[in-house]
Amino acid sequence: MAEVEEEGRKPSEEFTDESEEEDSEEEPKLKYERLSNGVTEILQNDAASCMTVHDKFLALGTHFGKVFLLDIQGNVTQKFEISSVKINQISLDESGEHVGICSEDGKVQVFGLYTREGFHENFDCPVKVVALHPQFTRSNYKQFVTGGNKLLLYERNWLNRWKTSVLHEGEGTINNIQWRANLIAWANNVGVKIYDISTKQRITNVLRDNASLRPDMYPCSLCWKDNTTLIVGWGTSIKICVVKERNPTEMRDLPSRYVEIMSAFETEFFISGLAPLADQLVTLFFVKENSDQMDEEFRARPRLDIIQPLPESCEEISSDALTVRNFQDNECRDYRLEHAEGESLFYIISPKDIVVAKERDQDDHIDWLLEKKKYEEALMAAEISFKNIKRHDVQKIGMAYINHLVEKGDYDSAARKCQKVLGKNMELWENEVYRFKTIGQLKAISQYLPRGDLRLRPAIYEMILHEFLKTDYEGFATLIREWPGELYNNMAIVQAVTDHLKKDPTNGTLLTTLAELYTYDQRYDRALEIYLRLRHKDVYQLIHKHNLFSSIEDKIVLLMDFDKEKAVDMLLDNEDKISTDRVVEELADRPELLHVYLHKLFKRDHHKGQKYHERQIGLYAEYDRPNLLPFLRDSTHCPLEKALEICQERNFVEETVFLLSRMGNCRRALQMIMEELEDVDKAIEFAKEQDDAELWEDLISYSIDKPPFITGLLNNIGTHVDPILLIHRIKEGMEIPNLRDSLVKILHDYNLQILLREGCKKILVADSLSLLQKMHRTQMRGVRVDEENICESCHATILPSDMAKPFSVVVFHCRHMFHKECLPSSGTIPGLQFCDICSAKRRGPGSGILEMKK
């Protein structure tokens, strides 16, 4: 809470809220300041007895019978000498144009502040309270009430005379009246009552809870929250009453309205005043405490609490103890709480002091956060409410936060906040960079420096790069990768890196970084040399990105040594930039690499490298025999004689067999399979592929004296050669392994062939029958003949115009139609005719006739 001090005031007179824990983490809800200026002078010589608050001004009554009109700052604008004794009550209408005043000597005055009309009356007893009709300015609402021993209603009639009515009497002194709309609420020694001026009915009586308290020492506090909600505070009890309309069926002789108590609860201290704050209550408490040294009570500072009413209790939201002047001498009746409707302003009135409490705004909230060193929350609050704050600047709060983080030693967080706080202010950025340099934390701020459209001077970035280069090669490399090359003088950094490489020429990190710097400087050949020297994975990306193919023509072997697959793919993808002939020339001394290149070239296109196929035979034979046979099969440009020579030299039987068969020497190929491979299955497979009866005869002749071969033949030739031919040639008494199984298999295969033939025959017969039936059904269908059809011979309408005459029409199954007389003679077979059109087009005879006669 803000402290308000006056010059010359003793420390004990300082106005503050008491906070038992000075470093409490709970933020106060209200802030306070003294109403000074003219009020200070008034209260030095007099004492406040009452005050009324209007939106435009304040009205203050004193113990010496004076009434002062004040502006919101406490400056006196008007002064009225009403009486020589205490002013008990001041009442204003809603417009603030009329005022009602009553005093302890029985004077009642009601007059216009801007007119001369008024009411002046002296009673023979003190008048404690007065209340004007809220709409008093309007001519038909010239009403007010006074309270002393009686509650009197004054009304001005059409003759401009004041008529007096007694609304209530006989229950002691009336000490409070509050008028809202058509409802008048007043409190006397017995309780609180409400009167409906529109129906002239009293509608409730709320009894006082603690009858032992003197009503003159602990007066009742009344406050209207709205037109139907009355808040009653008396002693330590608070009740919230709501005026409701009664159901017409329940009225009978009862008032049209009734009151329901929505909430009732006890408080810890005595109530001196009440005011609404949204759905909460602001309560002014008079506090008595027991002395630790004496057994008697003494008066403590009054408290202003914000509470949340509940049906049978309340929840304390905030509580402030107020050091008002002379609080030790004040009683409960000496305090009052007034509030300005529509504004969260609360006036605490005591005889020698007036304090204004108001809700804390966003600036106050930020003040409190900064005081508690909650800089991040303060910055967030300022950013959210930057349009509403008046005393604070978002950037200044951010700078305070950065300073706080630096003081704590949290340099990374401080540097991160610079991005958000410093924004586009380049001067502030440079100041912060130099500050971080002074404390030796350039590394912390390096990753957060601006690097987009807004940039610092190149010297700033170079200073940071030099700092990293001295202590952290990896960090230096990271910055070079992340920062655009335009941020700094590239040549200066290249020179610095070169100087460091003189001390450590094999440092891979520095070499890689130097290559990147050369790339930024578009000296790609220098970068390429370093990448190749380091066997760096980005070398291929560099070549592609900057089209460096002309620079790598003499470095193909180096690229292949680094990564054969990537190098070959790159070369083949860019044949238009590096020709196949050039690659072959470069790889001539490295046949194993040449083979890899030519092999992938052949896989992509069997014809592109055809002039190198002869060389490839030797390369496959030397480095990749498993792919030699597929190559021989797929290549149409390979010289067979050369290939046969190489295969025979290296004794590659399978490849030799293939080449012999391709050159037409199948018998020699079969002989190699039988003699050198001794693989009857391959021999049979070869014979099946060639499908040559002579080869089968050679195979049988070669195998006839070799029982294992005979077994293989018996198991496999059943579908290609009649097994009887082989069986007849087997010598009697020859022992053949698994002969029985082989014969069973031959019989099984034969039976299977028979079954397949029979099955196929059944399917063929069934399909033929089905199609015949379908054709028969189709030919048996009727054919529609109408006026649109014409004779295919004479081209006249097929039907005569006069259907009554007899006619004859011939319709073939091909849907061609003729008049019978237009058809030629039957031909060679009597009675059988064919469609001439279909016969001429060789589409068949158009078999069958449908004949129509009439």
TrEMBL record:
Role? Plays a role in vesicle-mediated protein trafficking to lysosomal compartments including the endocytic membrane transport pathways.
Domain of life, per UniProt, equals Eukaryota
Q: Does the keyword Cell inner membrane apply?
A: no
Q: Which CDD domains match?
A: RING-H2_Vps41
Location in the cell: Cytoplasm, Cytosol; Early endosome membrane; Endosome membrane; Late endosome membrane
Q: How does it sit in the membrane?
A: Peripheral membrane protein
Give residue ranges for domain RING-type.
791-839
| Family, per entry | Belongs to the VPS41 family.
Keywords per UniProt: Autophagy, Cytoplasm, Cytoplasmic vesicle, Endosome, Golgi apparatus, Lysosome, Membrane, Metal-binding, Protein transport, Transport, Zinc, Zinc-finger
Q: Where is this region: Disordered?
A: 1-31
One annotated Gene Ontology cellular component of this protein: lysosomal membrane
Among the Pfam families in the record, one is Beta-prop_Vps41
User: InterPro entries this protein is in?
Assistant: Beta-prop_Vps41, Clathrin_H-chain/VPS_repeat, TPR-like_helical_dom_sf, Vps41, Vps41/Vps8, WD40/YVTN_repeat-like_dom_sf, WD40_repeat_dom_sf, Znf_RING
Q: What is this protein called?
A: Vacuolar protein sorting-associated protein 41 homolog
Q: Which PROSITE patterns match?
A: CHCR (PS50236), ZF_RING_2 (PS50089)
Q: Which GO terms describe its biological process?
A: cellular response to starvation; endosomal vesicle fusion; macroautophagy; protein targeting to vacuole
> What are the Acidic residues biased-composition ranges?
14-26
Any one Gene Ontology MF annotation carried by this entry is: zinc ion binding
- Extract the Gene3D superfamilies matched here: Tetratricopeptide repeat domain (1.25.40.10), YVTN repeat-like/Quinoprotein amine dehydrogenase (2.130.10.10)
Q: Where are the CHCR repeats?
A: 568-712
